[in-house]
Amino acid sequence: MPGMTLYDKLVASHEVARIDDEHILLYVDLHIMNEYTSPQAFSGLAARGRQVLRPGQQMAVVDHIIPTHPVPAALRVIPDEASSRQARNLKRNCDEQGIALFDTTDPLQGIEHVIAPEHGMILPGMVVLCGDSHTTTYGALGALGFGIGTSEVEHILATQTLVYRVARNLRIRVDGRLPAGVSAKDLVIYVVHSIGAQGARGHAVEFCGSAIDALSAEARMTLCNMTVEAGARAALIAPDATTDAYVTAHAPQLHGAELAQARAYWATLHTDADAVFDVEHVFDAASIAPFVTWGTSPDQAMPVTGTVPDPQAEPDALARLALEKAVDYIGLQPGAPIAGVPIDRVFIGSCTNGRIEDLRVVADVVRGRHVAAGVRAMVVPGSGAVRAQAEAEGVAAALIAAGFEWRQPGCSMCLAMNDDVLRPGERCASTTNRNFEGRQGRAGRTHLMSPAMAAAAALAGRIVDVRDLEQTR
User: Fold this and answer.
1) Is there a single domain that holds both residue 20 and residue 150?
2) Residue 132, CB-side half-sphere exposure with 13 Å CA sphere
3) What's the total number of domains in the chain?
4) With contact defined as beta carbons under 8 Å apart, do 31 and 157 qualify?
5) Which pLDDT does position 472 carry in this prediction?
6) Is 414 annotated as a binding residue?
7) CATH number for the domain including 345?
8) pLDDT at 461 over 60
């Protein structure tokens, strides 16, 4: 009998019951909620006269709809009535059920996928679910995380379990060293571009290789966060010394004998040498350049040195139609270089790139320089803790001096559910995870890239290769 993958081990350790050949009842260690995917679930519980089974294994946060205006945290308000009602409903539900909530005026409020790891809520070996697709982030710490729907939220609140269809296994090995100026964000856009938006559909993806080993814990979160853009149902990296250092630094509740026991368990969380994967891909890190999206799907991307594809060169009629639609929406000419395209806005933040490491990189690029005339550039930290740390380190001061807006935390322009919105036709260099039509505002145009690349675009007023900018210092 072949060995088990890391994914297989995590699923097996949380299997409550086998339903059929494809489905199990999965135990959930931690369930995270936000203001817009939970209301119907609480209503469903109330209609059935049920209570939350295990309130201590739930956490909630207001993050998607909250404005990010730079006012003190204690003075933050949500002026839009519909959005304010969502936040009030979440607070009422959490108060009634005894669920921890990072509310609007909480100084530690932030994006759910930033808050949970930084407060030591995510440990290797856990199953963590949330009504948000980028819950795959937690695989960076060796936890199985994935997004769920509203009806599933209700099921978890009532039973702390989920009826779960087991995924297939896919491994991505990345060996070598990422070149200077190339980050985990470039790597994940490259991977999504290489295997396609459906390349990991139905699979749990495990990353391995020397390039992955070299990534920091926060860089691994970026990688796992965006793997869902290739259709992955989960993304995982086996725990190692980097994981241990991050978790123990952020989870002081683990100490002494309990920490020793946890470490012994973490050491078992790896794929067996004789395990078999359904699909495998191998990439060379040294061959990767800074990547930029040109279209309306995260896989429609290219090196910053590339040119916009010509739809007429695509032989498949359906694929050609999709390319034509994307090129038309994004407003670029086939064959034109992506470098040099003027931008109007720059957005740095989100659950993909709103952590302290990301903001440090941006500060390093812009220090002593200034945002180009006519460009509105904003930085939205991923959490109150990140914001405070950036201010303590002088990162925020460097950003402000360079002409960036320094905002309060939230999802912000990642999906434009508040008033951080692109106007029709505006073009944005963005560190977010999706460049769909209208994602950042109706008729807005989004180019996904790394924090360093977005910072360089802000300074130049156009898409540029950050490696060229660094050579001018």
Assistant:
1) yes
2) 30
3) 3
4) yes
5) 59
6) yes
7) 3.30.499.10
8) yes
Annotation-wise, does 411 bind a ligand? yes
Question: Any idea how long the chain is?
Answer: 473
Q: Amino acid identity, residue 77?
A: V
HSE of 443, CA atoms in CB hemisphere, 13 A: 4
Q: What tens digit of pLDDT does each residue of 190-213 get? A: 999 999 999 999 999 999 999 999
pLDDT-based confidence at 1, cuts 50/70/90?
confident
**In which domain, by residue range, is 23 found?**
6-165
* pLDDT at 106 exceeding the cut of 60: yes
The residues, any chain, with a CB within 8 Å of residue 100's CB and separated by 6 or more, are: 58, 59, 60, 94
Q: Token pair for residue 15?
A: 């299997």
DSSP designation for 253:
T
Is there a single domain that holds both residue 313 and residue 376?
A: yes
Q: Is 94 annotated as a binding residue?
A: no
Kindly report each contact of residues 330-335 with a partner whose C-beta sits within 8 Å and lies 24 or more positions away, as own/partner: 330/294, 330/295, 330/296, 330/445, 331/425, 331/427, 331/445, 332/294, 332/308, 333/308, 334/308, 334/309, 334/310, 335/307, 335/308, 335/310
